[in-house]
Amino acid sequence: MSETLSKIRSTGWHRIFVILLLALMVAGAESCKSTGKMSKKERKAAIENAKQQLQPIISGTSTLSYDEQKRVVDGVMDKNLNDPVLNEMIIQAQKKLQDMAADQMQKLSQRIDVARAKLYDMLLNKDNKSADELEADLNAIKRENLHDSEIDGLIGRVEKKISDMRSGGAESLPLKAQLENAFTTIANSAKTGNMTQSESTIGKTLQLFSSDDVPVLIIISREGSTVDYDKPTTIRRYLNLLKDTKTSRNNVDAIMTDDEGKIKGLDLIKK
Predict the structure, then answer these.
(1) DSSP result, 148-187
(2) CATH 3.10.450 fits 174-270, yes or no
């Protein structure tokens, strides 16, 4: 044992101890760096850099997208630099991002409203557009990528309408023509004794209206802005009248629709 100790002393044990101590100091320094600690100079530079990143966002002059600006602000926050001026700038940048998000939501809502109105117009096809024209209008709305469930549902309905138009289905006709054809079918079916078809047509026609009690006004005469109406009725009563009298004496003059494209008011005029 004494021989072993003598050999250790002869190799300069104190030199080995110094080397181990230096190694521990270096490892400690590396550990400080890895945990995010920095010198005063490094911290000052990091704070100035963060301020420069935030200033365009606060002033509204940044050319970055909303998502990119948000990543910049989040990155500055993650550094935890804890500088009073920088902290205030972070708050201002977050407020700016909130305003941007609210503005984007408002613009998206407006775009959705416009698209909804256009899609309902396509379903009614008051302008009597061709299937190709409707498809071109529909594709323009699709390209907006609105990601709204109601808009997606309306797009599906318009796509079906376009398909029906190309296959020659009844829905290919403008709404005015659909109504007038239904009136004639109800009256003629009743006249020939085919009450089943007359009742079936009444049921299908009522589906175009928001309710069975939608008001129907029949124009008796019109001179300039002066209009005289017959006694008001409802759509169900009017359709039953067609069946009972077995004749259709009126054409469609005006159609009023609700936000869902259903008819909420109908003006007729004597043929």
Answers:
(1) -HHHHHHHHHHHHHHHHHHHT-GGGS-HHHHHHHHHHHHH
(2) yes
